[in-house]
Amino acid sequence: MRIGLLLGTKRSKNHAQLLLKLALELKKSGVHVVLICPEDHFITRSAASKEIPVQHIREFKMSYDFAGALSFRRALKKSKIDTILFRDHRETAILVTAKFLMKGKLRLVYCQAEALAPMKRDFLHTFRFNQIDAWITPYSATALEVKSETNLDHDRLHIIPIPFVSRKRTPNNASPHHPKSGAFKIGFVVNTERTDESDQLFEAISVLSKRGVKAEIILAFEGLKLNEQQLQQKMVETSLRFGYTETPLVANLERSESTFWSECDAIFIGLHSEPFSGVSERAMANSIACIAFSSLLSKDIFADGHAAFLCKRDNVTDLAITIEMVMNNEDLRNEITSNAFELAKKELSVKMFSDHLINLLKALPKK
Hints:
Blueprint: E1 2-6, H1 13-28, E2 32-38, H2 43-49, E3 54-57, H3 66-79, E4 83-86, H4 92-101, E5 107-111, H5 123-129, E6 134-137, H6 140-149, E7 157-159, E8 184-190, H7 196-210, E9 215-221, H8 228-241, E10 249-252, H9 253-263, E11 266-268, H10 279-285, E12 289-293, H11 296-301, E13 309-311, H12 316-328, H13 330-347, H14 350-363
Parallel strand pairs: 1-2, 1-4, 2-3, 4-5, 5-6, 6-7, 8-9, 8-11, 9-10, 11-12, 12-13
Helix pairs in contact: 1-14, 3-4, 7-12, 10-13
């Protein structure tokens, strides 16, 4: 078994960090693994320092690229790779072409990194997706989405929790998170253009404020073309609309992630971008109490409510009641965050994913 972990572009640093850590775990298990990336990719130096082989390729164009597929085939033959794991769905066309050029003697494993766009059931997508030998998705809720939005052969779909690797360190123990002096701070990460969940949080805090319960909102953003001032102005307008008179605190998560987690006493998890944003996993790893609306996805992520506080779907009144319960019940908060920390440590580790991946690859037919 010779596995290539593909970084066809320099787009995502978090994807690169995950694949580097995965390469190390696979190597420890005796698997021959190679990182495949453009020559000037930042991960090259890190891989060399950890003695992970690197095969350089020309950077992929995010469109059909026959010349890129030819170049990629030559690189695979040079490294004698028989399996490719990739995370960017836009690379599918090039990889399927390379597989055709290799007369099918290449196994493709897609590790899903983002939610699907609606309705990928046309002939071209159906053909390409069914050239993928294994499609890994993290939860039963995301598997249902794949089944409903594509014509992928269900035998190719495998549910394996996918770890999120942050460039920032997280604690290595589950010490209780004690609220600081002053108002209780509820965090929220803005990483999608949709505003309904942030609106609901502002409305819930406003409901509490009218009852004399003091809580503040601290916001962070990542993956959006906004700066702190633009987001703060946008959120001030939202807060005033719901009668929340405090100015929301705003942070850039990519620059000040550790500060954000240290400031949060709890976090409201927006489910529109989960589980692929990794917010829930990072919160659990930092022993921050998670609050989310109840759904199939949140029950999947948070062990049916054992690792988070779940409230009724789209019910602002119940969200406010849940936030107040989290604020006032320290023993229960510590119990839930401890459960969450252990879940993240055991079920969402790179080591666990590596073990599942090896077992999956052993079960796949050889080409």
